[in-house]
Amino acid sequence: MGLINWVVEQHQFLMHQCFSLPFAFLFYFLTKRGYLSLTCRYLFVSVGGCVLAVVTMGIYSLLLFVSTFVFILVLAFVDPGYIHIWVFGVQMLWQTFWHLLIQYKEYWLHESVSIRMFLAVSSLMLLTQRITSVSMDLQEKQVTVTFSASSKRKGCVMLLPLTSYLLSFTTLLGGPLCSYSQFVFLMQGIKPPPSPLGAVFLKLIQVLLLELVRFCLVCFMKQNIPDPSHSAVLCGVLWVWGLALVYRMQYYSHWRISECINNAAGFGFRENSSGDWSGLSDGDFWSTEASSRMSDFARRWNTTTASWLRRLVYIRCKHFPLFMTFGFSLWWHGLHLGHFVGFLTWAATVKTDYYIHRYLHPKLSSTWRKLLYTCLGWINTQMIVTCVAIAVELRNMSGLRLLSVTYAGLFPLCNILLLVILLKVDAVRKTTKVVM
């Protein structure tokens, strides 16, 4: 019972998602048997999303409903060529207002923020992904939505799938992000996928194992809190690494449950495969944590969000795309002090990784060198990710003090120093070539 009580107290997002599973199975069963027409399917997922929002967020569910309503108004009255600019600006201003309100309540008024408000703002961030994804589709003419007087009926027909995509109960609380076109294709379900029961069961077992390991790790760490004045430096570093791993495992559980909900509804099955239900996934624990390079970790962590950031910012920026992408990410996450330190550190260490790999990789001629490079790279990646996770999750000065006291913060600092040295060496080489 201790584990169950701990999960309920510490991870209410996870429990709210678990409550959606029976309705996802019901949707799959009714669709598979042909009891739901296409219109009824759209109504099922959209009404289900609205009910889920009201039940879990209360009055704060208005954050999502207002965003959706304003987005539809922009679609109706703004020229398609300018829709993305308007949508992006309005949506990010609305989201930033609530992020700043949370900071005002926490740091200025010293009030505790309601879990419902946190849940609503978290869902609003995911809604921002879906809204901007549609606006980019419209800008790139991958999707067309018309609301002119001559096509009023067609506009109403387009409105239901769009609303269902934005407020679907399968992605409302946890993603993963899929394109609007993919969502419509999945809802049409021309070729229904096989039963997802086995895949969902296995993924639920994985979630239980992750939470069990996390529970044991938290108990162990509570009993072995290091004293900076007496403990060895290695003990402090390992303790901080364990704390960051606890935070990351919470995300892996969250993403796995999100996969379960989508799979239970019949979404995420890969065609031409034998029982592969990984079509909608935000990341895998083993492949992500096994990354020996920061750039690999950045691509594998929260996969659909990483792809969204790449499309929204990285590809569109002509100057400093990497830093602009991570800069927007810290804005999207909430503009806390820890976010500034964490995401800018992440960007700098990814840039360092590119330079180091380009410089060292040609010199890895033997197998033992490659193995040593991989092992050292994995340790370096784990420690940098540890510092980023602590800074981002604790959000304020307490995380930075913890990294300072335990000396874990030396890892990213050394990487950033190495980046400066490599940039200077690179500049000297270019100057020498020009002179010659």
UniProtKB/TrEMBL annotation:
GO CC, alphabetical: endoplasmic reticulum membrane
Membrane disposition: Multi-pass membrane protein
Annotated Pfam families: MBOAT
Domain of life: Eukaryota
Keywords: Acyltransferase, Endoplasmic reticulum, Membrane, Transferase, Transmembrane, Transmembrane helix
Chain ranges passing through the membrane: 12-30, 42-75, 157-177, 197-220, 232-249, 330-350, 371-392, 404-423
GO molecular function: serine O-acyltransferase activity
Name of the protein this chain belongs to: Membrane bound O-acyltransferase domain containing 4
GO biological process, one term: lipid modification
Keyword Membrane applies: yes
Location (main, coarse): endoplasmic reticulum
Keyword Membrane: yes
Native organism: Seriola lalandi dorsalis
InterPro entries on file: LPLAT_7/PORCN-like, MBOAT_fam
Location(s) in or outside the cell: Endoplasmic reticulum membrane
